[in-house]
Design a protein that fits this description.
This protein has about 180 residues and is α/β, with parallel strands linked by helices. It is about 35% helix and about 20% strand. A five-stranded mixed β-sheet has the order 1-2-3-7-6, with no helix packed on it. The two termini are about 25 Å apart.
């Protein structure tokens, strides 16, 4: 089950902003983007697009434009859930404070909840803020637990190429480098 993250949210907002700008100019998105020196320059024309470009989104946006700029694809991403509850487990992209559960802004962007308690009897699992992961005595990597019932699985995959998996059934972690 894929959840909405802050980069997916920025992608959706940038695509819609650029589509609107193209429509206002009486052009298709592909025609509109070609009026700029390159896609990165085109992304500077709007707030959401600029934010997305500044966060590494230009290659993804360019691939989307070159692939036909389908709004069906954007709409599928826009419909991703921001949170999920399975049994006693709560999942969202960035984590949040108890009273922020369900708030898209906080569940996509919050970085200030780590030392605050989570709902007793439930486990919050999230990413968004990269944390140091250290090997345990058994040689397995351990994600950071901020509280007994809060786990951050973010291992900065974009830089480290390291992925983290958490098994709900037996409270174990696996960290690995996927093959290219």
């Amino acid at each position: 089950i894929y959840l909405m993250g802050n980069h997916e949210d920025m992608f959706v907002n940038a695509c819609m902003e650029m589509k609107d700008a193209a429509t206002d100019a009486g052009m298709s998105l592909q025609e509109y983007v070609k009026t700029f020196y390159n896609v990165a320059e085109a992304l500077l024309c709007g707030y959401d697009a600029r934010l997305y470009a500044q966060n590494g989104g230009a290659p993804t946006f360019e691939a989307w434009v070159n692939d036909g700029a389908s709004l069906n694809f954007v709409n599928k991403i826009a419909k991703l859930p921001i949170c999920l509850q399975i049994g006693t487990f709560d999942f969202c992209h960035a984590g949040c404070e108890i009273e922020q559960w369900g708030s898209a802004r906080d569940m996509l962007w919050n970085r200030e909840h780590f030392d605050l308690p989570w709902v007793e009897g439930r486990m919050l699992i999230h990413g968004h803020t990269s944390v140091r992961h250290i090997p345990g005595w058994d040689g397995k990597w351990k994600p950071r637990r901020y509280k007994d019932n809060k786990i951050d699985l973010d291992c900065t995959t974009v830089r480290t190429q390291l992925l983290a998996l958490y098994c709900l059934e037996d409270d174990t972690f696996m960290m690995f480098f996927p093959e290219a």
